[in-house]
Amino acid sequence: MSKFYFIFLCNLFGLALLATKGNTQQEVSFLGNIFEILNSDSLHQDKPVTFYRAINSLNHIQQSRVNKLHTDYIYVLDSTVRFDYDFNTPIKVGKGHILYDTINQRELSLNFDPTSTPNVLIGKSYTVRHYNDKEFFIRQSFNPWDGDYKNLDESNPLTIQTFYYDNNGLLERSESQGRQEIEENRPSSVRLLYYNDNQLLERYEYYSWDNTLDSLTLRDYTLYRHNDQKLLDNIVQWDLHPVRGWEYLDSTSFTYNEVGQLVKEDNFFWSISKGNIFFPNFQRNYLYNTNGTLKSRKRFESYKENTNTWGVFQMGEFDYHEYGSLSTITSIDSVYPYMIPEEYYEIKYIHDENIHQENVQLPRSLDQGFHEYQNHILLTREENSIRYGSSPVERVEYYYSKLPTTSTQEVIKQDVASIYPNPVISNNINVFVSDYSSVLDVTIYNIDGQRLRQKQIQNNAQLNIAHLEPGIYIMRISAGEKYYNGKFVRM
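Request: output the structure for the sequence above.
Response:
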């Protein structure tokens, strides 16, 4: 299996990491790590992508407002450093620095690239993300940079993306511009999104600029269908061929288990050579642990029509630390043509298990939709090649600063407080804090930070959540002078 595919596998599950954002002046006393959760750029492609990238990207942009959970952050992500290896010797190849400009409602990611001198980096570019008064992500620019912190005024952007929302806060239009289009005050491409009465994505259209017509032209579109449980059921993509006109491009169908977890997706491509039919392209299967976390993901390719079997597979196995967060992803490939499994890559995640990710301020482009299998901030991400022994490939280190404490409440450690079962299949969830006998003050927020319910309950009592739609929620438990922020999944 190629390294590209392995990294792509991780991206699908929100486990690829922001690896090039940091600054030596801001590196502090301990390391940390944070995920890149399919940021807004993943929508800006020539064609829509299927399922997890498409849906997660769209949901991320629709919900890419500040997480307004009114709690006290303890740490803030400052910077990251990335290393490649030369015969087991680490070489610094990328850094980034994150600036939080709250006055102008923007965040800047400053990128430092390698030079001809090993371990010496220079500032080369920066990205700026703007938010409006409703805290919606409305504009992003990518800019060249000379490394001078005084020159961050976006006066000469290379690209600009602009986002527009409907009255329900759903993304309905995005526009992209390159340098030429910026000078000519026109878009290079436009994406339009349409939703049904349940506010579920129904249609996606991609337009690009036609220089001959001097206008935008529809190039492809994608139709989305959902089942009665509001889960994605099928995607069909159409493409405009220059000779044959409109034709199918591909289709993907999805199968779920009884609690709504994805267990299989089947992708088909439109084959003219086989008589204008949808022909199997790949299949992905998902297995879960009894606690709802992902156990493995397996992709089959090279369909054999004569035997109705697949020729090769790639697989990712997910292991977890005792404290619950993801520990390792192991890449396993088949050896063609015998379907014999062979390990290729592994990615290891090292955390500070005493610091919960809900207590860390992140860039607003990153703190939405966190993967539910990572509940603690990471210290390092290490990628190793394990096909012929173990040899390091890449290492990412993350740096945080500690924020001044503005609350008199003390954070409750995760092993002291618990919310269970998680995921929640029934209409009730238990809330428990050990060594505490009084009433708990419990508040539930959605992923946007909107407060949905606040109630006082007895310790180790059940809280009714029948009114909550399926999704990821944040619970704040206040127990006297202490509090705990946790996350749970409502099925």
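The longest helix spans residues 51-62.
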